């Protein structure tokens, strides 16, 4: 979860977010090299007194500074395309969950288990406990087993929402009349917080998402307990 001291990306909790973090570092390194190179050239131009009154053209340098940016863009584009295809891939999901966006809360359906359904509302400030996070905690969390492939199907009933969990590298639009899907998995236990990242109305800031990642053994117990109740 991001705090007020968080300057970089959150610690990744899924293989997908790890790949996104690697791509971020890769792109940032290229940008740093470009920034240092251009800065050094500009300082050199400002402070040297060299002149060449017969210099009219330089075809070689023009070829070089045309080809180098093109190669740089290729080095950025290839990992980016690879990531786009990885994000869209759905690999034999063990569990399918449907998430429906409303103004302004989420509802979830576990269709693999006799269609477990519940709504997830933000906990109001006057009902919070000491361990709750303001504007981020919900009354019903999405419980998932870690190291299991999850397929999330997302839609909405009214306006466009966006189901986003930064620590998992998941962001998918919830569009009325359309089903979008994404596949992900968590590689550790914990609580992972997110919010709707699409401006969807007056209470857009008050429809958080909380995923509780637990072991498969305790997930089966939670399913059994939920079905009994």
TrEMBL record:
<dbReference type="Pfam" id="PF00116">
    <property type="entry name" value="COX2"/>
</dbReference>
<dbReference type="InterPro" id="IPR034210">
    <property type="entry name" value="CcO_II_C"/>
</dbReference>
<dbReference type="InterPro" id="IPR011759">
    <property type="entry name" value="Cyt_c_oxidase_su2_TM_dom"/>
</dbReference>
<comment type="similarity">
    <text>Belongs to the cytochrome c oxidase subunit 2 family.</text>
</comment>
<dbReference type="InterPro" id="IPR001505">
    <property type="entry name" value="Copper_CuA"/>
</dbReference>
<dbReference type="Pfam" id="PF02790">
    <property type="entry name" value="COX2_TM"/>
</dbReference>
<keyword id="KW-0460">Magnesium</keyword>
<dbReference type="InterPro" id="IPR036257">
    <property type="entry name" value="Cyt_c_oxidase_su2_TM_sf"/>
</dbReference>
<keyword id="KW-0496">Mitochondrion</keyword>
<dbReference type="GO" id="GO:0042773">
    <property type="term" value="P:ATP synthesis coupled electron transport"/>
</dbReference>
<keyword id="KW-1133">Transmembrane helix</keyword>
<keyword id="KW-0679">Respiratory chain</keyword>
<keyword id="KW-0999">Mitochondrion inner membrane</keyword>
<dbReference type="InterPro" id="IPR008972">
    <property type="entry name" value="Cupredoxin"/>
</dbReference>
<feature type="transmembrane region" description="Helical">
    <location>
        <begin position="60"/>
        <end position="85"/>
    </location>
</feature>
<feature type="transmembrane region" description="Helical">
    <location>
        <begin position="27"/>
        <end position="48"/>
    </location>
</feature>
<feature type="domain" description="Cytochrome oxidase subunit II transmembrane region profile">
    <location>
        <begin position="1"/>
        <end position="91"/>
    </location>
</feature>
<keyword id="KW-1278">Translocase</keyword>
<feature type="domain" description="Cytochrome oxidase subunit II copper A binding">
    <location>
        <begin position="92"/>
        <end position="225"/>
    </location>
</feature>
<protein>
    <recommendedName>
        <fullName>Cytochrome c oxidase subunit 2</fullName>
    </recommendedName>
</protein>
<dbReference type="InterPro" id="IPR002429">
    <property type="entry name" value="CcO_II-like_C"/>
</dbReference>
<dbReference type="InterPro" id="IPR045187">
    <property type="entry name" value="CcO_II"/>
</dbReference>
<dbReference type="InterPro" id="IPR014222">
    <property type="entry name" value="Cyt_c_oxidase_su2"/>
</dbReference>
<comment type="subunit">
    <text>Component of the cytochrome c oxidase (complex IV, CIV), a multisubunit enzyme composed of a catalytic core of 3 subunits and several supernumerary subunits. The complex exists as a monomer or a dimer and forms supercomplexes (SCs) in the inner mitochondrial membrane with ubiquinol-cytochrome c oxidoreductase (cytochrome b-c1 complex, complex III, CIII).</text>
</comment>
<dbReference type="GO" id="GO:0005507">
    <property type="term" value="F:copper ion binding"/>
</dbReference>
<keyword id="KW-0813">Transport</keyword>
<keyword id="KW-0249">Electron transport</keyword>
<comment type="function">
    <text>Component of the cytochrome c oxidase, the last enzyme in the mitochondrial electron transport chain which drives oxidative phosphorylation. The respiratory chain contains 3 multisubunit complexes succinate dehydrogenase (complex II, CII), ubiquinol-cytochrome c oxidoreductase (cytochrome b-c1 complex, complex III, CIII) and cytochrome c oxidase (complex IV, CIV), that cooperate to transfer electrons derived from NADH and succinate to molecular oxygen, creating an electrochemical gradient over the inner membrane that drives transmembrane transport and the ATP synthase.</text>
</comment>
<dbReference type="GO" id="GO:0004129">
    <property type="term" value="F:cytochrome-c oxidase activity"/>
</dbReference>
<keyword id="KW-0472">Membrane</keyword>
<dbReference type="GO" id="GO:0016491">
    <property type="term" value="F:oxidoreductase activity"/>
</dbReference>
<keyword id="KW-0186">Copper</keyword>
<keyword id="KW-0479">Metal-binding</keyword>
<dbReference type="GO" id="GO:0005743">
    <property type="term" value="C:mitochondrial inner membrane"/>
</dbReference>
<keyword id="KW-0812">Transmembrane</keyword>
